[in-house]
């Protein structure tokens, strides 16, 4: 005992020992704390949880996939930062919607009183009258599973029919696209909100999210082709935000519903959209982080033709290889991929024109016919594009038009102007 007492002071004074298995509640608390730290670390490095898209869904929650102790996959809905008393990994109470209409009766009556009806919801054009077949539930920022009731939430079959009804307005020619977009934009956010509140994450939810991503991509192109007013610019910005959030949720849903290792029919194409949305220098996702993202993808997705196309386009764009960029788009791009890429096409065309202007021979003008093939443009539009870049063209006695090089007036075109793309419809 004396020997032991003499050795005891040699231990470091602040040294602590791990509790034994028989230490009771102290050990249990320690294990719970370690589990919480591990789970938070897991979320921090989640595949699709980038800083620029931390909120995957509108309203009060984010989506992520998590594996339970039984090995079954489910979706974890994270609470808002305001709910500081709750763990970020506690499942919220799930509501099963019972509303049989596209818009709850209480909301429909209130909006009639307030004359808060979109032009598509008015009965016989009356701004204070609607019907169950016209009114569609609006997006509510403060709506959550804790505050709402089942009668205010639409079940999956009603949500499917509502989405089909809302998207049918995209074919309408009676109103400007900005008016149609404003209505569909809000009502699809409400549909996503009801899906989120009920934790609906099955394959039907995947189909609905795919349709909503398509809507935002088509809107991305059409809003660019509209007027250049501040309102249109704001609508385009908000549309891009919701496109990013909807797409990230969809990519997570693919992982949640994967059972046998196979990929879904449209999964590769929608992963390619994520890459193409990160081409521009204004994107918050840098090349390095996108490279890390590629490493998280499964082999069938990486090797798909859609992802091979997206990666080639990314490489050509960053290497300023305008010929490879334009030719690859003309040969392989799908209609939705081209909707995303169209704003970059004119940027690359202007870059090519700059190279030709600076690198050509002053005494040998560049024929517009050859320039048309290089820029993948109609010859009739090449001259107007040159003028938009501050370059003058000339013609010979036979009527052939050409571009004199070494002009010092070149400037990047202002705004967005749509030009037809050869080999693209």
Automatic annotation (TrEMBL):
It comes from the Eukaryota. GO terms for cellular component: cytoplasm; transcription export complex 2. Residues 15-38 have a biased composition (Low complexity). It holds the Pfam family SAC3_GANP. Residues 102-393 form the SAC3/GANP/THP3 conserved domain. InterPro entries: SAC3/GANP/THP3, SAC3/GANP/THP3_conserved. Residues 55-65 have a biased composition (Basic and acidic residues). One of its GO terms (biological process) is mRNA export from nucleus. Coiled coil: none annotated. Residues 1-70 are annotated as: Disordered. This is SAC3 family protein C. It comes from Cucumis melo (Muskmelon).
């Amino acid at each position: 005992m004396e020997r032991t007492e003499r050795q005891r002071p040699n231990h470091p004074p602040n040294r602590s020992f791990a509790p034994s298995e028989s230490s009771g509640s102290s050990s249990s608390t320690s294990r719970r704390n370690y589990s919480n730290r591990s789970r938070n670390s897991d979320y921090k490095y989640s595949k699709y949880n980038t800083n620029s898209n931390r909120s995957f869904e509108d309203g009060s929650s984010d989506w992520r996939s998590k594996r339970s102790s039984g090995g079954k996959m489910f979706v974890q809905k994270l609470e808002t930062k305001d709910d500081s008393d709750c763990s970020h990994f506690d499942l919220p109470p799930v509501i099963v919607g019972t509303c049989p209409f596209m818009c709850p009766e209480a909301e429909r009556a209130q909006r009639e009183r307030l004359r808060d009806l979109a032009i598509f919801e008015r009965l016989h054009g009356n701004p204070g009258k609607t019907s169950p077949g016209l009114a569609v539930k609006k997006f509510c920022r403060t709506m959550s599973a804790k505050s709402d009731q089942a009668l205010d939430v639409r079940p999956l079959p009603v949500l499917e029919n509502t989405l089909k009804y809302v998207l049918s307005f995209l074919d309408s020619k009676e109103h400007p696209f900005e008016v149609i977009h404003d209505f569909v934009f809000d009502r699809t956010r409400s549909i996503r909100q009801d899906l989120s509140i009920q934790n609906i994450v099955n394959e039907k939810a995947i189909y609905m999210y795919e349709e909503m991503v398509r809507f935002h991509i088509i809107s991305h192109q059409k809003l660019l082709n509209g007027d250049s007013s501040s309102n249109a610019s704001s609508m385009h910005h908000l549309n891009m935000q919701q496109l990013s959030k909807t797409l990230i949720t969809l990519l997570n849903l693919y992982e949640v519903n994967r059972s046998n290792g196979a990929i879904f029919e449209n999964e590769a194409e929608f992963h390619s959209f994520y890459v193409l949305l990160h081409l521009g220098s204004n994107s918050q996702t840098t090349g390095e982080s996108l490279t890390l993202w590629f490493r998280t993808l499964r082999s069938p997705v990486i090797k798909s033709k859609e992802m091979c196309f997206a990666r080639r386009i990314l490489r050509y764009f960053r290497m300023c290889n305008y010929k490879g960029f334009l030719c690859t788009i003309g040969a392989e791009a799908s209609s939705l991929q081209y909707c995303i890429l169209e704003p970059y096409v004119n940027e690359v065309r202007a870059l090519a024109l700059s190279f030709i202007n600076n690198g050509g021979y002053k005494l040998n003008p560049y024929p517009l016919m050859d320039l048309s093939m290089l820029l993948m443009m109609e010859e009739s539009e090449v001259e107007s594009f040159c003028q938009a870049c501050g370059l003058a063209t000339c013609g010979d006695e036979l009527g052939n038009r050409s571009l004199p090089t070494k002009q010092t007036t070149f400037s990047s075109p202002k705004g967005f102007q749509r030009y037809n793309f050869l080999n693209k419809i």
